[in-house]
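User: Run a structure prediction on this.
Assistant: Running it now.
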Amino acid sequence: MLRTIINHEFLARTIYPEASRSLYASLEGLLSWDFQYWLQRGSLEVEFGSVALAENFLGQARALAPDDPFVLTEWSYLLFSKAQEQPHAVAAPELAAQASDILEELIDRPGNNDPYPYHVLGSQGLRWARRGIDGRSEKERYLNKLLTIVQAGRNKFPRAADLEQLWKDLKKESLGLIVAANASTSPT
């Protein structure tokens, strides 16, 4: 019941992010031992607030549960967010690569029964491709890799509608690159 009540999506939807922050702050003394508390508090910041705060809170969650797949997935989301904040910074490609590596490892873990790592890798990878990858051929390779991974997720989780939509978005982006390349090379 506690996990439901402190879930960042539930709180953001019902009492909005600012009130959620206040609630988390008031619960810190009671729940500072619980990695789920830090995970949810950090997740709220990744989606609706400060990347610096998210890194602090998710760092607490990682210290308490370093191998938890939910913590690792959200940490990857954070790494993508940091890369996308300053996509042309020297560290940005490495942050995106770290995020991708963690998510791919989670996807390949025996017993993985969650479509969310596929979704984070596909959606945040698509955002990264749009903002942080300048070269067309590099972007094509990355998008094709994401398409393959998301297709595997669609096969494994056929009822995950968000993966279906994500695959379509990735396919559209990939085809858009091909059309743009053909248009730029065709004689007028």
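The chain has ten helices and no strands.
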